[in-house]
Write a structure and sequence with these properties.
elongated; 7 helices; plastid; chloroplast; 2 strands; mainly alpha; two-stranded antiparallel ribbon
Length: about 170
């Protein structure tokens, strides 16, 4: 999981060998789907166990290099938690959780869930409609003014005799 096994583009390329048994990412994905879940859901559910195993193996999270660019004094104990699926794990150190959320927001603009993206799209459409309505009002006003000028020509509508202005 910590080396990109949940990445859809990994296919069967990512492999783990433990006690002479090999498991590739596509086998793992098939297993998770067979149980009615996804590799990411599995990783979130097992986040603390994954971090403890990584600590014993000395395997840092896949975002540890990136986090060390921002925080060079990152400890090895915190580095094992640097995987994006740990962002909501209550056992994850606060420093790492905060950094993971900020990194997510930097990369994706804080889009959040599908429902919040839908709401954002609705707000954007509503704003666009307001802009279009305002533009159309201006155009109608211009047309009205143009039509009045066209109708009255060079005359002044306030004069009773509608004398031609020269």
């Amino acid at each position: 999981m910590k080396i990109g096994g949940s990445n859809l583009n990994a296919g069967g390329k990512v492999k783990a060998i433990y006690a002479d048994k090999e498991l590739n990412s596509s086998q793992f994905t098939n297993f998770c789907r067979g149980e009615g879940g996804t590799p990411r859901q599995f990783a979130r559910a097992m986040g603390t166990i994954i971090a403890n195993a990584a600590m014993k193996l000395g395997e840092p999270g896949d975002f540890s290099r990136l986090m060390r660019l921002d925080q060079p004094n990152l400890s090895d104990e915190h580095a094992v938690w640097c995987s994006n699926f740990q962002s909501q794990n209550p056992d994850c150190p606060e420093v790492v959780q905060t950094w993971l959320r900020e990194n997510y927001n930097k990369r994706f603009g804080g889009r959040g869930t599908k429902s919040s993206r839908r709401a954002q799209k609705k707000r954007l459409k509503a704003e666009q409609k307001k802009i279009i309505k305002a533009h159309n009002r201006k155009v109608r006003r211009r047309k009205k003014t143009y039509n009045k000028r066209k109708h009255y020509g060079n005359t002044f509508p306030g004069l009773k005799e509608n004398k031609q202005l020269t």
